[in-house]
Amino acid sequence: MHAPASSHDPTAARQAWALALGLALLYFGAQVLTRLAASPALELDEAEQALWTQSWAWGHGPQPPLYTWLQQLVFLLTGPSLLGLSLLKNLLLATTYLALWRAGLKLMPAPLAATTALMPLLMLQIGWESQRDLTHSVLVTTVAALTVLASLRLLEAPQRLGRWALLGLLVGAGLLSKYSYAGFALAWFAALAWLPAGRAALRQWGAWAGLLLAAGLAGALLAPHGLWLLDHGEAARAHAAGKLAGAAAPDALARLLGMGRGLLGALLAAVAGLMPLGLVLLLVLGPRGLRSAWQAPVAEATARSQRALARALGGLYLLTMALFFAALVILGGATQFKERWLMPFLLPLPLLFFASLPALQGHPRRRWLHRLAALAAVIWLAGIGLRTWVAGERNRPDELNEPLAALVQGLHAAGAVPAGPFTVISSDRVLAGGLRLALPQARVEVRRPDEPPAALPAGPLLWVGRGADVKAASAALPQGLPPRQHWTLPVHPRGPGRVSYAAAWRDAGAGPGP
């Protein structure tokens, strides 16, 4: 068994790359424009990024900081804006698809690699949820795709230190994207090292020097955040424990039942993540077509080598992934899993599936996979554009139905927004994030309604509360900052729903309340 290899006509390769870039620009550019048109309000993950990017830090909340750092860089170009938020996410998603396509070229014929690159559109967590409201999960999936590509390139030339350096930087970036990358990397690299091709690569001259270089670069990239975690890591640990674990089991039998639920939960999350894609493959290609493609002979030596590598790697990766989740349940006490947590784990599976069946290149219905992926892309695009309108009409508003533009217009009309720098306070993170983008001259903070008056900053100050929090927050306002204005506004863009707001403000020159 040999490392992956591929040969392309240079002109054809350039044309394919230009076509892939053009399609990615067309689709993800349309997603950016659709998101901008949908609503000026923010989803929760978007709002958190709007708030965290106000200052540089080695860590933000319970997740690693790389997404926020990248968002700060984008904001240098776009300013704090919805455009900047949407642009970064869609750049990352485009990179994921392109990296998967480039990885496919290492393992299968070019037409089949193109099919592979479209398959994430048929995975709900990547095709839809990543557009709807995810940030760290999007980034870790992108880095996972780049890791797969970089490791396959490394198998081709394990003596090249530059490829080891790139892999080390990707590992560091993955761990700075989301801590779950550690599980993906462990499963993926264990599967690679288990392969004869992987073991042969590690025996190459310079491979161990490259491994040390990769480890050193990953460690250097992680060191500042690691030092930050020494003082702030409890929040991240508590967040992870709360997400993965249920209530503590009182006895041995309950613990065994909890392990069973955890193993079943991991399996069901994986099945749910792959189910739409799996159903499409079965319906389009059929069990007989898949069986024939599995058994079909391959005449060309390189293609046989690629197929053998993909089948071995696919089997080993499924095994190491299963072992990781079993250890997480049995040793770590995990009892619950969500589909989005498995995004980086599941992403390589379509790649390995199609690489294991190169005969699918000639399947008469393979083009239907392209058509269905294109249909899914249109559905996701329409969903992003229409869901705010549909939610408003059904009187089931979500975050994007926040009438943020009308609220900000009311604040300006009431004289609550000074011309210079000032501080905005809200107890609602989503509202606070939206106000940060709508009032770029303000420093926006999220505070509990019962924060003591002494904790309020000096200078011009605006407090905004909404919904059920308005009455309680108004009662908790410090002396000297009484409620000045109330609004009841229709939801965005239209519908029977209404949202209540209250605002209070302190003019320039005033100090903190007593």
UniProtKB/TrEMBL annotation:
Membrane disposition: Multi-pass membrane protein
Subcellular location: Cell membrane
Record keywords, A-Z: Cell membrane, Glycosyltransferase, Membrane, Transferase, Transmembrane, Transmembrane helix
Membrane-crossing residue ranges in chain numbering: 12-30, 73-100, 107-128, 134-154, 209-230, 263-285, 314-335, 341-360, 372-390
Molecular-function GO term, any one: pentosyltransferase activity
The organism's place on the tree of life at top rank: Bacteria
Stretches assigned to the Glycosyltransferase RgtA/B/C/D-like domain: 63-215
One matching Pfam family: PMT_2
GO biological process: lipopolysaccharide biosynthetic process
GO cellular component, one term: plasma membrane
Protein name: Glycosyltransferase family 39 protein
Protein species of origin: Aquariibacter lacus
